[in-house]
């Protein structure tokens, strides 16, 4: 019954970067109705309505107005919103914060990447310890193992200095045995130097 009134398709753009697409809604001039309780909509989130003509309207949530369901009416939102003009909407969409996990993760939305990546020193220490473990596990010859561990010591001392040299770290890493696990740890460490 209520679902018949939900003729619009909207996308919710959360302030933390989450995006919920293809949500059935009824968009009115000052309110949007969504009969779902499985997503959290908060003040400041954006609602984008995709129109059949290809246009997009963007609204900013002023009051989410969540209502628990009753015996006849399902749980959902009666959202009070503000219609954003095109320049205001573009600015609002561009100020959404994206939370990314993993080393050197990034998002570029029609922009040049001028970001600087920083990697936590404890991550570097953890990867250096992993590197030592892999060398001890993979290399059988005691002399080769000792040589490789000396290279790891040199890499570690580079990270302990205020300004590790990317060229030197790269040279040291390339001097390590060629094994997949060692190479991937080496790639992390090289990325951690920046440059």
Rg result: 26 Å
Structural class: alpha+beta
Straight-line distance between termini? 60 Å
CATH architecture annotation of the largest domain:
Beta Barrel
Low-confidence runs: none
As for the number of domains, it is 2
Number of strands: 7
General form: elongated
Oligomer: single chain
Q: Give the DSSP E fraction (strand runs of 2 or more residues).
A: 15-25%
CATH topology (level 3) name of the largest domain: Thrombin, subunit H
User: Under the CATH scheme, which class of the largest domain?
Assistant: Mainly Beta
- Strands in their spatial order, largest beta sheet: 1-2-3-7-5-4
Question: Kindly state the mean pLDDT as a whole number?
Answer: 80
Percent helix range: 25-40%
What's the helix count?
5
The biggest sheet, with number of strands, parallel, antiparallel or mixed sense and barrel status, is: 6 strands, antiparallel, barrel
What is the H/E order?
EEEEEEEHHHHH
Brief overview, please?
The chain is of the alpha+beta class and 195 residues long.
Descriptive report:
Helix content is 35%, strand content 22%. The chain is an alpha+beta fold and 195 residues long. The protein folds into 2 domains: 2-94, Thrombin, subunit H (Beta Barrel); 121-193, no CATH class. The protein has a 6-stranded antiparallel barrel. Helix 4 packs antiparallel against helix 5 (180-193). The radius of gyration is 26 Å and the shape is elongated.
